[in-house]
Design goal:
There is one protein chain. By secondary structure, this protein is α/β, with parallel strands linked by helices. The protein is built from ten helices and 16 strands. Strands 1, 4, 9, 10, 11, 12, 13, 14, 15 and 16 form a ten-stranded mixed β-sheet that branches. A four-stranded mixed β-sheet has the order 3-2-7-8. Strands 5-6 form a two-stranded parallel sheet. The longest helix has 16 residues, at 143-158. The protein is globular and about 50 Å long.
Length: 352
């Protein structure tokens, strides 16, 4: 077993209009590649990790350009499977003042959507890996893609890898006949060693009404005892999970957010500070930046230093809000500089 981290999912092409215009305005679209698991791969590569991204792309200029965009940022693409006709697309309309952001998907019939179990040689792709990272989106597109996701997870388990799961529930994606998102995500959770999600995702899966997070300043008083009780419910769904993180964001306005996270590990709950972000540049990929920061923090800090691991992850996610596009282009040095500056963690509480 090596030290490589492998992520698996669908690479997307994102189109948006500049200057906060609506999609119906202007004549020029801005394009960049992204997608949750690719975002995690780029974040890890930027922090110095050996990372491989696995997907299926068309053998076209757009498919090759997508793979190139990853290689340019240090992500391995040796196990990308080529076939099919098109790259999945999504259209992102930025929030402005009272108008919320919106996402419109155009990914039906994408190369990834026709992925089948047996197409990828997972033992070869995972040969030098220690971690496999997938998300709920990986399994949400089609039933065969979901089956391929569990094929990857099961092979990784047999090989002794750490299984990292981001719940990433997107209700508008589960449209194939017979789709059962809650049951599928619960099945994924049962395999997780490390797991990520936000309050909306945990609410969907557990049926437990989410606990409000309405911070407008960093001194907001969170109901940590309520979260502790909620964690006890979540833990029952993932008995092998060593570390469970929950992220939360309050959107005060289109460009002013607060952000924080909690971590359950080693029988304790840890909370990070609340970060005030008054000038959000791009909110896409913040959860993926949490994931990438967390998986890297597991390498550079002692496994028992859960507070430091959590704080580093939050610093990585906070920095992503300042970067346009889906990818978090922050290095380890930049994240540590933020973590150890005036941003310094305060008001730490640990609950047994």
């Amino acid at each position: 077993m090596g030290n490589k981290i492998v992520t698996f999912g669908e690479l997307m092409l994102r189109f948006s209009k500049g200057e906060k215009m609506r999609l119906s305005q202007g004549k020029t679209f801005l394009g960049n590649y992204g997608g949750s698991e690719a975002n995690v791969a780029v974040s890890l590569a930027m922090q110095g990790e050996d990372v491989e991204y696995v997907t299926r792309l068309p053998d076209t200029q757009m498919g090759r350009a997508g793979a190139m965009s990853l290689r340019q940022l240090g992500v391995g693409t040796d196990y990308i499977l080529y076939g099919g006709d098109r790259v999945g697309v999504y259209y992102f309309e930025e929030a402005a003042s009272l108008r919320n952001a919106s996402v419109t998907y155009d990914r039906a019939g994408s190369a990834y959507s026709f992925l089948q179990p047996g197409m990828i040689d997972w033992r070869k792709a995972l040969a030098d890996a220690s971690v496999l990272h997938v998300s709920g989106i990986t399994a949400a597109i089609t039933q065969p893609a979901a089956d391929a996701t569990f094929e990857a997870i099961e092979v990784a388990e047999e090989m002794g890898l750490t299984i990292s799961i981001d719940l990433n529930y997107r209700k508008n994606l589960w449209r194939y006949e017979g789709a059962q998102p809650r049951e599928t995500l619960k099945r994924m959770m049962a395999h997780a060693d490390v797991m990520f999600g936000d309050v909306i995702e945990y609410e969907f899966i557990t049926g437990h009404e989410k606990i409000p997070f309405e911070a407008v300043t960093p001194d907001y008083d969170m109901n940590l005892e309520a979260y502790r009780r909620w964690y006890e419910e979540i833990r029952l769904l993932c008995p092998r999970c060593r570390k469970i993180m929950i992220g939360m964001r309050n959107q005060i306005s289109s460009s002013h957010h607060t952000l924080t996270a909690l971590l359950w590990a080693d029988g304790q709950m840890y909370n990070a500070r609340i970060v005030d972000i008054p000038n959000v540049v791009d909110p896409m990929g913040v959860g993926d930046a949490f994931d990438g920061g967390f998986l890297h923090a597991l390498r550079i800090f002692p496994d028992t230093d859960n507070q430091r691991i959590l704080d580093y992850s939050l610093a990585a996610a906070s920095l992503k809000n300042t970067i346009a596009g889906d990818f978090n282009l922050s290095t380890e040095e930049e994240i540590l500089d933020v973590l150890d500056s005036d941003y310094t963690i305060h008001n730490i509480k640990v609950y047994d």
